[in-house]
Amino acid sequence: MTTSPRSPRDFEPDAIVVGAGLAGLVATHELVLAGKKVLVLDQENRANLGGQAFWSLGGLFLVDSPEQRRMGIKDSKELALQDWWGSAQFGDSVDERGDDWGRQWARAYVDFAAGEKRDYLHELGLRSVPMVGWAERGGADPQGHGNSVPRFHLTWGTGPEVVRVFEEPVLAGEARGLVRFAFRHQVDEVIVEDGTVVGVRGSVLEPSDEVRGAASSRVVVDTFELRGPAVIVTSGGIGGNHDLVRQTWPTERMGAAPEHLISGVPAHVDGRMLAISEAAGARVVNRDRMWHYTEGIHNWDPIWPDHAIRIIPGPSSLWLDATGKRFAAPNFPGCDNLQTMREILKTGYDYSWFVTTQTVIEKEFALSGSEQNPDITEKDLRVLLRERLSKGAPTPVEKFKEHGEDFVVADTIDDLVAGMNKLSRGGAPDLDVATVEAMIVARDRELDNGFSKDAQLMLVANARRSRTDKIVRVAKPHKVLDPDHGPLIAVRLNILTRKTLGGIQTDLSSRALGADGSPVPGLYAAGEVAGFGGGGVHGHNALEGTFLGGCIFSGRAAGRAVANG
Ligand SMILES: Cc1cc2nc3c(=O)[nH]c(=O)nc-3n(C[C@H](O)[C@H](O)[C@H](O)COP(=O)(O)OP(=O)(O)OC[C@H]3O[C@@H](n4cnc5c(N)ncnc54)[C@H](O)[C@@H]3O)c2cc1C
């Protein structure tokens, strides 16, 4: 074996962290607080510190927060648990004991979100935007999927700020000699001796000066073997590895995997550490649980391969399948992600359509991603007010309208449908103008009264009773064909990969569990690779804003457990 010139071998760590994303940074932060020495390995370069969290919108699930109370929202731990259980639908696991720990993590996580979470982050300097968002509103059943109330707390500064509050103390630890980073170190094996994990082996990748998020070379220039009394795996999910996504796709529950998939995550989200950890004795459960989205658009200005951006929609756009049929309740924008994906895939095509107006996109199209929300990411209040409250859609949305390959903009319904037909794929039949027009006219007629039998219009009316929605997220109901609200806009929505809900099963100390359910000595896992705790804290469906928080909660548990021996 050879050593790299920048070898971290002269460092004797108390823990080796595999993955410098959010979960790895949080675990490292906790270890540094306890005065421990940490070696952090990552296959990417230093520019990628913080992993996916940097790209995130920084939405955080909090329960009964001061921000909610100020918006007149009455939330409680009981209501949040009811929603979590309704969404998770635990117990339907293909793995015999797949949900054993997921349930315990879910209870502990809701406790955290209703208790310590806000203070923990507040003390680190993190602040939320005062308007609490309402993600995943669910179907119709209070015991089913979805948030009964708005709980999505957007970080002031989005993902980069979530990263910053942990990165800064970790970098201070580096300056004090407690933390050593080894970038471009890709772990290929977890070393087990006499049943105990004692370190990792891997490949040193050639140096890369790629910008953050860009796919980097996998050319190996060296190998390494590094030892430490604990290994914490925080390597993220599988969303950047479409082969693995397809292999584990839940065909029985969801229908066949889409032929055309785009990536909501960078290429480093490759899922390799799952099999590597499994080879070291860890139990991987709930592999078929994933949280991919239905509202993906091709990034006109991509950073990583097949770069997808998700529209986080308000409730007003008409949602049609590839054959032009309007989805039935509760498959309206922002309600029930996986249920709608099932309906999309049932058609035999892997895309669907929003048909909407300029007025709607101005208020209701939020694009997920820190770089798509420069006003909030840069914490620039003046730009924020100008972008969000003045006429016109936010600049990033307008850019997609102008350059995005999935957008059709037209003044007449004939031109709109003709444009949609040009974008059809997979052999979908041409949409018929008269049929689409009749559907829209019928819907528009329902607006002549202040009441309606249209379930989506009822949803919109309900949404506008939430203060945030009324002020910044939901357009005043109007007729789609009213030229004052034009032009008409259609958006082809593709399925994009994002989060992995299953993973390494862990106990509440983030210790990786083996085949017999007991901890694998020396091995820990946190963040997305651990299904955000327990190998599946979300069960089948997520309530949103629960992933960054899941990294924080499980990363903190891992760091504290290792620090306490
Ligand atoms: C655009 C976008 C928007 C999002 N918005 C939100 C949001 O608003 N709210 C929310 O809760 N969540 C959101 N998420 C999800 C959330 O950001 C991620 O789930 C979370 O950041 C995952 O963190 P992690 O530390 O588990 O993994 P990652 O961030 O994926 O980090 C893992 C690291 O491990 C490294 N690694 C992997 N394998 C190896 C190996 N073999 N050897 C060495 N290194 C390795 C990788 O290079 C990477 O740096 C969003 C995600 C994206 C991409």
Automatic annotation (TrEMBL):
Highest taxon listed in the record's lineage: Bacteria
Key words of the record: Flavoprotein, Oxidoreductase
Domain FAD-dependent oxidoreductase 2 FAD-binding: 14-548
Pfam families linked to this entry: FAD_binding_2
Keyword Flavoprotein appears in the UniProt entry: yes
InterPro entries: FAD-dep_OxRdtase_2_FAD-bd, FAD/NAD-bd_sf, KsdD_DH, Succ_DH/fumarate_Rdtase_cat_sf
UniProt xrefs under PANTHER family: 3-KETOSTEROID-DELTA-1-DEHYDROGENASE, KSDD-LIKE STEROID DEHYDROGENASE RV0785
Listed name of the protein: FAD-binding dehydrogenase
